[in-house]
Write a structure and sequence with these properties.
Blueprint (H helix, E strand, L loop, with lengths): L8 E7 L12 H11 L3 E6 L9 H11 L6 E3 L10 H10 L4 E3 L12 H13 L2 E5 L19 H8 L8 E4 L3 H8 L4 H4 L2 E4 L10 H8 L5 E2 L11 H7 L17 H18 L1
Parallel strand pairs: 1-2, 2-3, 4-5, 5-6, 6-7, 7-8
């Protein structure tokens, strides 16, 4: 497996405004400085306002334009809504732009687990060699605005996609709790488990030590670095690694975990195997 560098690629960041509260500096240029400060080599970046648009095409165009001056560090992750006309063009443009992944938001779109459109997107993304990223939430339920009525993504949604045939995409689940990670991971076959990664930004550290438990049980290779800029404190991921018990702390903290480069390489290899078999 390809090892991440000492400076991993952040798998979960956004630019743009958020409808339910003010965010400090959600601009691409600020994100570049944040990544440098926190030791990231780059980031997978999506459009935050586009999450709440019925048609994501305009927000995707703004995402590409906003990241253009920083494309050596900021990698676009557009939204592809597979029940919307022209979604295939959005996926093809993502491939043409060199996007490592596309994001989907089943809860905001009212999808039930196993929705046919999401399954279709997963297979199309897998054939194209891009990762399908599924964010679980944006804010804790306790601070969520009363107009934000979409619930958290469920384990049933994630398992339904992960259980598709090997033609489906590699999955990255962002914002999961320990309970959600375990409900998904232990409900899959060993082969299916190898196609799913989870960022750990929402997983608790001491004293509950949920993060240490997952490192022991599912392994660090299934856990991915993220910053969650600008919605959460970017230092969270490194702080959780720093607080791991000594027996779980490798000589090089960062090399044991996945990052954007590792997951993208896995998606490309999987797509190559699929194309070779057809």
């Amino acid at each position: 497996m390809t090892e991440p560098s000492a400076r991993p690629v952040d798998t979960c960041a956004w630019i743009g405004g958020y409808p339910f509260r003010d965010l400090p500096h959600p601009e691409p240029a600020v994100l570049v400085r944040v990544l440098e400060r926190e030791g990231f080599a780059g980031a997978w970046v999506g459009s935050l306002p586009g999450v709440f648009h019925r048609d994501p095409a305009a927000s995707n165009a703004s995402l590409y334009a906003g990241l253009a001056p920083h494309r050596d560090l900021l990698h676009p992750v557009p939204i592809v809504r597979p029940d919307w006309p022209g979604w295939e063009r959005q996926l093809q443009r993502a491939v043409d732009e060199g996007a490592p992944a596309v994001r989907a938001y089943p809860m905001q779109w009212g999808y039930a687990p196993g929705h046919a459109a999401l399954n279709t997107l997963a297979r199309a993304a897998g054939e194209a060699g891009v990762v399908l990223q599924l964010p679980v939430r944006f804010e804790d339920l306790r601070q969520r605005h009363h107009l934000d009525t979409a619930g958290d993504l469920s384990a049933a949604h994630i398992r339904a996609v992960a259980r598709l045939s090997e033609s489906a995409a590699c999955l990255l689940v962002s914002g999961a709790s320990r309970e959600l990670v375990e409900e998904v991971h232990w409900g899959l076959t060993p082969e299916e488990q190898q196609r799913v990664w989870y960022d750990w930004h929402w997983i608790w550290g001491p004293p509950e030590d949920h993060f240490a438990h997952l490192v022991r049980s599912i392994g660090p290779e299934r856990l991915a670095w993220s910053s969650w800029w600008p919605l959460r404190l970017t230092q969270q991921a490194q702080a959780l690694v720093d607080m791991l018990p000594e027996e779980l702390t490798p000589t090089s903290h960062r090399s044991s975990f996945a990052d954007g480069a590792v997951i993208m390489s896995a998606a490309h290899r999987a797509a190559g195997r699929k194309n070779a078999s057809t």
